[in-house]
Design brief:
The structure holds three protein chains of three kinds. Chain A is mainly α. Helices cover 77% and strands 1% of the residues of chain A. Chain A has one domain. Chain B has one domain: 3-Layer(aba) Sandwich (Rossmann fold), CATH 3.40.50.300. Chain B has nine helices and ten strands. The longest helix of chain B has 18 residues. Chain B is globular, with a radius of gyration of 17 Å. Classes of the chains: A mainly alpha, B alpha/beta, C mainly alpha.
């Protein structure tokens, strides 16, 4: 009943645009392009280097949060081991260059593909379990990776607790190590990556594959009784979100020039989870905005030395009080308000 | 079409099915399975559709042993089922779920299913919002997509009145005849089964008791004893 | 050292470790059986138990700590039941698990705030400070006490589940919540009992861990990860499975540190993934979540 009402209202609202959906789409694309261009360039002129650095860190956290949020909203699965991919790919990149003399670009590709292969094998084992066990297993797998860089036997490769400095000669995608480390030059890269990954997640969500994932999440048994395999789609989704985290981890190591066991730690995974919860998991904008928001909040909080306390508090508050997150909550609120006002318009 | 050969299922020490043999031959025939509570009717359906593996025996479908095949494989090869407790996608609209499955199974005659199950009025409603009786029709509609050759239904009359159940069964009989498919119906409501099914099988305590035309079964002394014995 | 001496040592050490793991993971499995919730904050409860034990032992000695710390933890368990599990009953199990994760992080941070970041050592009580000779080897008396406590709590748990009315109810709900509800079992009251008991056991484990491992800020994460591995290996929600898995885990960990010290840290994970490969649902007969 209420569904019928809103469609009628929407149709009337659409007539403002002379009934042409394509005009509206064009306006949206133009606005998005404007926003993208503005966001890529303006901050590098307006913001201080310090703010740019935190902002870029926030975008990276946001992309990691996007990977967590995508799997949460599309498959009902919570990943607590995002850090193992995020930090792990950095280690592989460093080791491939320093120990195996690969060129920076080759090392980048090697690290990316190895992590994808790892995600595929891990996923093959764990996506068959129930969601709660899945969550426990991703946590365990993450801890396994962070333990393994500390192993005595691998000390030659990983330098144990000291971490690795990651420098490279020459250029990757036309940029030198110094370029990546420069906050003004790195911001547009992080900004573009956030848009590309955000759109990739959006496209997958809107695709038939996304619809199948959500249907499996809602009623897996009926999907099997409708002729769908339910294992491969979930595995594919797991590999997809790890690819996002993978890109994110490479950007991180290129920017910071350093990898350490901290980048593999549970706190990175829980921060990504919190950023996703802060922004809301249902779309692409939410987690990325949540990442930026959380990075600045953490900067304020970090002065007192208790960044993890903020993480813990945020998890509890956002799940108990604001399950849709700040961004999701705002969208929801706006929608409710517009429905109310259109109802009022209709009765008037 | 379907051969159930010496099928057994055990839950711990309890035998839910014990050496059951049933053959379902005809296309265009409605085959009813009845029996007192605990007879193993639902277990039988679960094993045939692959939801549960048997501890012994085999399921042959179109002459092929499918005992180890997955649920999804069986569905793609024309074996569909509906559920006693409706199993649909509450968060999707009726249209969304029907088209999702129709595209997967390559069915381009979805209109038929919508018409047969009389779902035209609620296509754009979220399935969780529509009346329970309509949800049950959606459940059967999901099973009818892709023109299955064998349709298995678990208590389609559950939650409906005796009159509604009878009407549903008459409707199902026509559907099965029109489409020339085989259908197996597990049902609690004995009257509807006797009135509409072409063949009736009786299970009791996990064993096959009798199979035959409704009139024969009705007169079978063992069947009467089983039902009286369980005071149903 | 003779071969059977090494084996005896190996078994004793793995039993000592397994004792702690059993106390913690059976608590996790019990709550899961009743509420379908995994308490990700269980590691923090254990850490709180250890730090409380440390403080109380400084004032009143080890034995006082072993009694008082679990009692305080039991009170916290009651708070957990009333303030978290009951109000969030209608939420998805994943959400509740995440809330316990968040609460665990908060508790851990609060402990670091109070006690600082350094590890603290706790001495075994004088009565248990020495060693005994077994199989021609000397073995710390405290570890034997630990094993006795582990086996004792295991036995007590088994007796309670098998012979008491509340134990029967717990088993009934764990196997089939809907049937148990129809039989008139009050899941809320049981959950109160089980949550406070499992928190108390986390307190016992924390105090016992003091002289055996150490009391340090990372102990909550290490322990919760170990316990989650055990619960998954044991088959989520299966108590017998958790006990067997804890024994297996203890053995693999200890044997790993003896034979492959370089790779010992990975031994539990190898065990986990091998079990998952063979039996995705774990070794015990757990119940799939509703």
């Amino acid at each position: 009943m209420s569904g019928g009402t809103t469609t009628r209202v929407d149709a009337r609202g659409g007539s403002l645009f002379a009934g042409s959906a394509s005009v509206r789409a064009l306006v949206y694309v133009a606005l998005a392009a404007l926003l993208f261009g503005f966001g890529a360039i303006a901050p590098t002129h307006l913001a201080s280097e310090f703010v740019l650095r935190i902002g870029a860190g926030g975008l990276l956290l946001g992309m990691l949060a996007l990977s967590v949020a995508f799997l949460m909203s599309q498959a009902g699965l919570v990943v607590l081991g995002a850090a193992s991919v995020y930090g792990g790919v950095g280690y592989l990149f460093a080791i491939a260059m320093s120990k195996w003399d690969l060129s920076p670009t080759a090392a980048l590709l090697f690290a990316f593909c190895t992590v994808i292969a790892y995600a595929a094998v891990l996923g093959a084992l764990i996506v068959r379990t129930n969601p709660l066990a899945f969550m426990m297993l991703t946590l365990a797998a993450g801890e396994m990776i962070s333990h393994s860089v500390m192993l005595e036997g691998l000390r030659d490769y990983t330098s144990g607790a000291d971490g690795l400095v990651v420098t490279f000669k020459g250029a990757v995608f036309g940029m030198t190590a110094a370029d990546f480390a420069n906050a003004t030059q790195f911001w547009p890269i992080a900004w573009s990556a956030a848009w590309i990954l955000g759109f990739a997640a959006f496209a997958v969500r809107r695709s038939r594959f996304g619809a199948i994932l959500r249907a499996i999440q809602e009623n897996e048994e009926r999907m099997r009784f409708s002729g769908f395999g339910t294992y491969l789609p979930r595995l594919a989704a797991f590999v997809f979100v790890n690819a996002i985290a993978d890109v994110c981890g490479l950007l991180h190591v290129l920017n910071s020039g350093f990898v350490s066991p901290e980048s593999l730690g549970l706190s990175v995974s829980t921060n990504a989870l919190v950023a996703a919860l802060v922004g809301g998991v249902a779309n692409s904008t939410g987690p990325i905005a949540g990442g930026v928001l959380f990075a600045f909040a953490q900067d304020q909080f970090g002065a007192h030395g208790f960044t993890q306390l903020l993480t813990g508090l945020a998890v509890v508050v956002f799940i108990v009080l604001l399950p849709r997150g700040v961004i999701g909550g705002l969208i929801e609120g706006a929608r409710r308000r517009s429905v109310l006002s259109s109802k009022r318009r209709r009765t008037a | 079409m379907l051969e159930i050969a010496n099928l057994s299922v055990s839950y711990g020490r309890v035998r839910a099915l014990d050496g059951v043999e049933i053959a379902i031959k005809g296309a265009g025939a409605l085959h009813g399975i009845i029996g007192p509570n605990g007879a193993g009717k639902s277990t039988l359906l679960d094993v045939v559709t692959g939801r549960r593996s048997p501890s012994g025996g085999a399921v042959r479908y179109r002459g092929k042993d499918v005992t180890r095949k997955s649920v999804a494989w069986r569905r793609r090869h024309g074996m569909a089922r509906s559920f006693q407790r409706t199993s649909i996608f509450q968060d999707l609209t009726v249209r969304e779920q029907l088209t999702l499955i129709a595209r997967h199974l390559g069915d381009d005659r979805l209109g038929d299913v919508i018409e047969v199950m009389n779902l035209g009025d609620c296509l754009d409603e979220k399935a969780g919002r529509i009346a329970y009786g309509v949800q049950r029709r959606v459940d059967v509609a999901l099973a009818l997509i892709g023109r299955p050759e064998l349709l298995l239904m678990d208590e389609p009359g559950a939650g409906l009145s005796a009159e509604e159940t009878l009407n549903l069964f008459l409707h199902l009989r026509d559907l099965v005849r029109d489409r020339g498919m085989a259908a197996v119906v597990v049902e609690h409501d004995v009257d509807a089964v006797f009135a509409c099914c072409d063949v009736v099988t009786v299970l009791d305590l996990g064993r096959h008791l009798a199979t035959g035309a409704p009139a024969e079964i009705r007169a079978d002394a063992r069947v009467i004893a089983a039902y009286l014995g369980s005071a149903a | 050292m003779r071969a059977h001496g090494v084996i005896a040592l190996l078994i004793a050490n793995s039993l000592a470790l397994a004792s702690l793991l059993i106390m913690l993971s059976s608590g996790l499995a019990l709550i899961y059986g009743l509420r379908d919730v995994i308490n990700f904050g269980h590691g923090a409860l254990y850490m709180l138990g250890a730090y409380l034990g440390y403080s109380i032992a400084l004032i009143g000695g080890f034995w006082t700590a072993l009694v008082v710390s679990p009692l305080l933890l039991a009170l916290l368990g009651i708070a957990l039941e009333y303030l978290v599990l009951r109000p969030l009953r209608g939420r998805s199990h994943i959400e509740v698990a995440l809330v316990t994760l968040g609460l665990g992080i908060i508790l851990g941070q609060a402990l670091i705030f109070v006690y600082g970041g350094e590890a603290r050592g706790v001495d075994a009580p004088p009565a248990l400070a020495g060693s005994v000779r077994m199989f021609g080897l000397s073995y710390p008396l405290y570890r034997i006490f630990l094993i006795a406590m582990g086996l004792g709590s295991c036995t007590a748990l088994a007796l309670w589940l098998r012979f008491s009315t509340s134990g029967l109810y717990v088993r009934a709900v764990s196997q089939d919540p809907s049937v148990a509800r129809m039989m008139g079992v009050n899941a809320d009251r049981l959950s109160l009992l089980v949550t406070s008991l499992s928190a108390a056991f986390a307190g016992v484990a924390g105090v016992l861990a003091g002289p055996y491992l150490s009391v340090d800020p990372g102990m909550d994460v290490t322990m919760i990860v170990n316990c989650l591995i055990i619960v998954v290996i044991g088959g989520t929600g299966s108590i017998a499975g958790a006990i067997i898995a804890a024994l297996l885990f203890g053995f693999v960990q200890v044997a790993g540190s003896v034979f492959l010290p370089d790779l010992a840290a990975l031994a539990p994970y190898v065990l986990l993934f091998v079990v998952l490969l063979i039996a995705p649902r774990g070794i015990g007969r757990g119940r799939a979540p509703a």
